[in-house]
Amino acid sequence: MMALFDDPEIWLPVAFAALMGLSILIYVVLDGYDLGVGILTPLADEAEKDRMVASIGPFWDANETWLVMAVGLLLVAFPAAHGAILTALYLPVAIMLIGLILRGTAFEFRAKVALPKKKAWNIAFFTGSLMTSMAQGYMLGFYVMGLVHSPAAHGFAILSAIFLTVGYSFIGACWLILKTEGALQRKAVGWAKGGIWGVVLGVGAISLATPLVSPRIWERWFSIPEFFLLAPLPLMSAALIIGLWVVLRRLPTDQDSFAWLPFAGASVLFVLAFTGLAYSFYPYVVPEQLTIYDAASAPESLMIILIGALVVIPIIVGYSALAYYVFRGKARDLRYD
To answer: 52 and 269 in contact (C-beta within 8 Å)?
Structure first.
């Protein structure tokens, strides 16, 4: 173990892979729920749309910071992988960026335009959220399939895009259960009950496809004793899904107790799924092509970047935590006057 830390060519790529993975995971959970809220807006009336947007208003732009952090770490720490991944995913990345721009613009304008024009910006907000989530799901599916252009890879990527969008809508509904009350909260419970089945199908599809596309990954999951050591991951996921379903069937309660449980459970479920995916692909940053060691920048560069990252990441965590603390409790009307 000490020898590992004695060699910066080994531990620095691992450290940056961990930081990048953590940034992606935090982004998927945090921006996942506010994208999910945007996807759900067509199912609500005008007053409920305002409350839904208010529930994510203080947080959404800070949530997106984690995407910038993840892409930035990929660029500076693994430049070869950055080039290979973005070359393969150029179109869905462009669609995602357009969606994020459209969504951010709509978020601000819908609160300021005259009432007759508000409907158009609500549609733009939904469209931007849908474009972003579908693009991210497509990228995930194509990455799982090894970034290789084939009908099967693109077909699975489209399937993954649909499932991730449903997954985002599920965690978004769980967020609304936590942050709203009354009729909207009851609607959110119904949306979560429907969305959980999409999560089951999505996690199941990716879990089955990942070992099938790579003999190396198959060996990592199904050889002995790894099979028994890793069994808690799918078992915990299954138990969590059952627990979420039981909780959702009992919500909302009169005292609004346990309203936090669906969002907490959904977040843990995303963490478990991400952990399994990270284990499957490590040490590759480009599936079956580039390891983190092959793609890493020079150790001297990584050391300088690491110092910067260790300063910036606590700042992001700090102001995000402050925002969640200040705006805790149920969402209220979002006002700009």
So the answer is: no
Q: Residue 31 corresponds to which tokens in the numbers above? A: 């921006």
With CA atoms as reference, report the closest residue to 68 among 37, 100, 95. 100
Q: Is the dihedral of CA 124, 126, 128, 131 positive or negative?
A: negative
Cα(184)–Cα(178) distance, integer angstroms: 11
Please tell me the distance from the alpha carbon of residue 40 to that of residue 140, in angstroms, as a whole number. Answer: 22
Ordered alpha helix ranges (H), the chain: 2-6, 8-40, 46-56, 60-77, 79-88, 90-109, 115-144, 151-179, 182-212, 215-222, 226-230, 232-249, 261-281, 292-295, 299-326
Q: How far is CA 117 from the centre of its chain?
A: 31
Give per-residue pLDDT as tens, 286-305: 988 899 999 988 888 899 98
The 10 Å CB-count burial string (b at 16+, else e) for 94-117 is ebbeebbebbeebbeebbeeeeee
Alpha-carbon Rg for the chain in angstroms: 21
Joined together, the tokens standing for residue 302 give 């990584």
180 contact partners, CB below 8 Å, separation of at least 6: 51, 52, 55, 188, 330, 331
Rounded-to-integer distance, Cα 275 and Cα 281, Å: 10
Question: What is the rounded distance in angstroms from the CA atom of residue 235 to the CA atom of residue 110?
Answer: 44
- C-alpha 177/C-alpha 191 separation (Å) is 10
Closest of 60, 67, 74 to residue 28, by C-alpha: 67
Domain boundaries, the chain: 16-326
Q: Which residue has the higher pLDDT, 298 or 112?
A: 298
Q: Is the distance from CB of 32 to CB of 166 less than 8 angstroms?
A: no
The type of residue at 30 is L
pLDDT digits (tens, 9 = 90+) for 174-188: 999 999 998 999 999
Distance, CA of 256 to CA of 137 (rounded, Å): 33
- Do residues 126 and 39 touch, judged by C-beta distance below 8 A? yes
How many CB atoms lie under 10 A from the CB of residue 1? 5
CA distance 46 to 27: 28
Give me the amino acid identity at 101. I
